[in-house]
Design brief:
15 helices, 321 residues, 77% helix, mainly alpha
């Protein structure tokens, strides 16, 4: 193997390790803390708090436990809880779609909000954006589906996961596999990005998407990072944008707008397909989520353009070091 190629892969591996360690330092303590809270019934308590919110969006109060699980854990754990809770409820396709869409907008918040904070965003702003956005979109879908009489037939899940052994060892092994998978996904992602950059595809995609992103207030320097986060997930896009924001190569406002868009609408492939198996309709979990996210970021850009740097640092972004 040529020395130049060896150096390329050495740098690629070193960058992957650096990004992965940054993420793992955030993720591992939070994963353990959430598991402890779950064992002590904290998630069930949050579910009870969310019960009145569920009724506002046309869902049974018991669905609060499902959303609380997704908020504090992840989409897949939320789906597993949905399996057991929904067995005692008769949900329509519309109700399932509302719940699934809210889960997609606000899930895994302890980890994903910490990633956004590490990249420079204010924790309270991102938390309000994710939770508030999920509620507003869920309520809007509920009203539209009810008014138009859409998706009112009883829901029949296309497929639901088997509920496996929930022992600590099984949980720990699953978390370890997930972290290893994240490492290799980041490695493959960086390799693809480097190849696309070398052959000029990155420049072409940036030119094509720049007008759209410019309307949202996102500059070309954050273009590819935003695309990565929206398509693959906030953990992967967030890991890259942490690196870029620390380096100063991406404007601070672009970081904020990119994180906002990624927060509201990320993992368009994996997470969307996962919740689709619960019976949720793509009109909510994909189309409405994308439209809502673009509109929300557009309004956010308009708001922030009127703010001073002091107000921006106070409410939206942590001041630069």
């Amino acid at each position: 193997m040529k020395p130049a190629l060896l150096e390329f892969f050495r740098q690629l591996l070193a960058e992957t390790v650096q990004i992965s360690l940054t993420l793992f330092r955030i993720m591992i303590p939070i994963i353990i803390a959430v598991k402890i809270l779950q064992e002590f019934g904290a998630i069930a308590a949050v579910g009870k708090v969310l019960s009145p919110v569920m009724r506002i969006v046309g869902l049974p109060g018991s669905m609060g436990l499902v959303w609380a699980t997704a908020i504090l854990s992840n989409i897949y754990t939320g789906i597993i809880v949905f399996v057991s809770v929904s067995a005692n409820e008769s949900l329509t396709v519309a109700q399932t779609t509302v719940l699934a869409t809210m889960m997609l907008v606000a899930h895994n918040l302890p980890i994903e909000l910490r990633i956004a904070q590490k990249a420079g965003a204010r924790l309270r702003f991102m938390g309000l954006l994710r939770m508030g956005g999920a509620f507003v979109l869920g309520w809007a879908l509920f009203r539209v589906y009810s008014w138009a009489g859409l998706l009112q037939e009883q829901n029949t899940p296309r497929w639901l996961p088997r509920i496996d052994d929930s022992s600590i060892m099984t949980w720990a092994a699953g978390q370890a596999r997930g972290l290893i998978m994240i490492f290799f996904i980041i490695l493959g992602l960086l390799l693809v990005l480097r190849i696309l950059e070398r052959i000029g595809i990155t420049a072409i995609m940036t030119r094509l998407l720049t007008p759209v992103l410019r309307l949202l207030g996102i500059g070309p320097s954050a273009c590819m990072l935003t695309i990565v986060g929206m398509t693959l997930g906030l953990a992967y896009g967030g890991g890259l944008i942490i690196q870029e924001s620390v380096s100063g190569r991406v404007d601070r406002r672009d970081v904020l707008f990119s994180l906002a868009l990624m927060g509201l609408c990320h993992s368009l492939f994996e997470d969307t397909l996962a919740v689709a198996f619960t019976g949720a309709d793509f009109s909510g979990i994909l189309l409405a989520r994308m439209v809502f996210s673009l509109m929300a970021v557009f309004l956010l850009v308009k708001l922030i353009s009127r703010l001073s740097e002091k107000a921006l640092n106070l409410f939206f972004l942590r001041p630069p070091n």
